[in-house]
Design brief:
564 residues, 3 domains
Length: 564
């Protein structure tokens, strides 16, 4: 029996995208079939252009990317087509030669360099806005079905407008950049000119004037010292001459006394003794009332005044030149101050809000805004300290885990290690820890009559025998002096307190942020002594000076030790 002959249009077995017989045919949810590779490439292109995936055949848009399903029936038909084509068992009346699907007009026009569609030989006068491609009038019915279509001329006009806008914007940016470049070149030139002007016209002239002024004052001081020298020399020479005359008179008087003592005549002795006695008493009385002024005193006074002036000038120069070097940061400082003011305002608002919430905010307010009063409140800010042996004077011995310092026996002095950072002239020592937290508190116990409890910057002078090394006598330290009375010192300015020492234990409370340093005597209550105010610029190191037979111990304020 003869096999039935079925007429089949092979174009239905071709992929609408590539125009070839289907390879691994797959069907999407709208019912159209494509090569698996072709439909995936199409969906990838849609996603790259951030548009919804659509069917190239019917234009149906999918809410999400569909997953093509393998079409087994079409795969079998295509396989049969290849088998029949190989055996040449089909004839022209029953089988039509497959037609290749049209290629993109962009590809054809680009390859040919013509303004005609190579597939349809029609003018390229239509623009597919969806694919951003130029096509002919027949192309939309194939690959571009369902896309947004426009006129090439109108699209050129619209794109031309966008091009002009971009060019104008680019020119504007270029002009602004050129203007900035010119301003920067001008500013650079001004900076170079200003540097020369500042150096020559201002700095050199001002500093030269200061040097001239110092030179004039130097000459004045020299003249003053010469005047002191002449005056003192004249005074000493006059006193020397007077003394020599008196010595001669005394020698003569002694000779007369010797002769009177050796006389054998009682009558002669008694007759001459009253007058001789009056002369001797007069000489002795005059000797008691002689001026004993020190002729070197003016030199010492001048020396102290010059040293004090030198220190003050050095401090002024250091301070002013440091502020001068920071003038370039004025804007940043202003911004920092504005931010600080905003932070302060925010903190005040938060504190106000805390108060408005009633009793629940009392503890928080106490912690952040009110200074402690009871010892329990002070102990919340207790810090751990230890003595630094490398800073201790050679007369001091540190023991008990670097917690106790006392004067050392004389036989140990020669055995002291020569640390370069130790105090060489004053019996002082610093702690290892620098205090910079917002609030710090520590306690010490003092044995002996005289001691100094101080806080100092790390850079305090440690080699000088002058006030630069003494706690409380310079700008780098603050001290509480404990002797018959208390006194506080800073920059050599001392304030005598009326309080007399009554407790061995002392408490030191530092509010670094607020710039406050307070001293207390500690017993069953806190006895306030004095509060010093300053602007602290770097960490403060606790330090001590010890008098004769004195011992200082740093108290352990850990919770376990406090309970015992």
């Amino acid at each position: 029996m003869a096999e039935p002959c079925i007429t089949l249009e092979t174009s239905r077995l071709c992929c609408p995208l590539c125009g070839e017989l289907l390879r691994n045919p797959a069907t999407i949810s709208c019912g159209h079939s494509f090569c698996t590779r072709c439909i995936h490439d199409r969906f990838d292109r849609d996603e790259r252009k951030n548009r919804a995936c659509s069917c190239p055949e019917c234009g149906h848009e999918f809410p999400s990317r569909p997953e093509p399903i393998k079409n087994t029936a079409l795969a079998d038909l295509v396989r049969d087509m290849h088998r029949l084509d190989g055996k040449r068992k089909y004839s022209g009346p029953f089988m039509q030669t497959p037609k290749r699907a049209p290629r993109s007009c962009v590809e054809t026009s680009t390859s040919s360099g013509s303004n005609l569609c190579v597939i349809h030989s029609r003018p390229l006068d239509i623009y597919c806005c969806t694919d951003e491609q130029i096509i002919c009038a027949l192309c939309p019915s194939a690959e571009h079905a369902g896309h947004t279509i426009g006129c090439v001329r109108e699209e050129r006009r619209r794109k031309q407008t966008e091009l002009r806008d971009i060019q104008a914007k680019s020119k504007q940016i270029l002009q602004e950049q050129e203007k900035k470049c010119k301003n920067m070149v001008k500013t650079l030139k001004q900076i170079q000119e200003e540097e020369g002007r500042e150096t020559q016209d201002y700095c050199e002239s001002v500093l030269a004037g200061i040097i001239d002024s110092l030179q004039r004052h130097y000459m004045s001081v020299r003249e003053l010292i010469r005047g002191h020298e002449k005056e003192a020399a004249a005074q000493v020479q006059s006193s020397l001459q007077t003394l020599q005359v008196k010595m001669e008179e005394i020698k003569k008087r002694d000779a007369e006394l010797d002769r009177l003592a050796q006389t054998d005549s009682d009558v002669h002795f008694l007759q001459n003794w009253p007058s001789m006695q009056r002369l001797c008493k007069k000489d002795h009385l005059h000797h008691l009332h002689e001026d004993s002024g020190d002729p070197l005193l003016p030199f010492e006074s001048t020396k102290r005044a010059v040293n004090q002036l030198g220190k003050e000038l050095e401090e002024v120069c250091d301070r002013e030149f440091a502020s001068l070097s920071q003038t370039g940061d004025g804007g940043e400082q202003q911004e920092s101050e504005e931010e600080s003011e905003e932070d302060d305002m925010q903190q005040r608002c938060e504190a106000s809000n805390t108060q408005s919430h009633g009793l629940s905010g009392v503890n928080n307010l106490t912690e952040h805004n009110v200074e402690p009063k009871t010892r329990a409140e002070f102990l919340q800010y207790a810090c751990c300290l230890s003595l630094d042996p490398t800073t201790a004077h050679e007369d001091l011995v540190i023991s008990a885990g670097d917690k106790v310092v006392r004067l050392s026996p004389s036989e140990f002095k020669s055995q002291a290690v020569r640390y370069p950072q130790r105090f060489s002239q004053r019996r002082q020592v610093l702690c290892r820890e620098g205090l910079q937290a917002e609030r710090c508190y520590y306690e010490i116990e003092v044995e002996g009559d005289k001691a100094e409890i101080a806080l100092a910057y790390k850079g305090i002078d440690r080699k000088s025998f002058t006030q630069r090394s003494a706690f409380g006598a310079n700008a780098n330290s603050w001290s509480l002096d404990r002797s018959a009375n208390y006194s506080v010192s800073h920059r050599a300015d001392s304030i005598q307190l009326s309080t007399r020492p009554s407790q061995r234990r002392l408490g030191v409370y530092l509010n670094f942020k607020e710039g406050a340093l307070s001293f207390y005597e500690v017993s069953d209550r806190m006895i306030f002594l004095y509060k010093m105010e300053a602007e602290f610029t770097e960490p403060l190191y606790p330090g001590f000076w010890l008098g004769e037979k004195c011992c200082i111990s740093i108290c352990d304020l850990t919770p376990d030790r406090l309970r015992t």
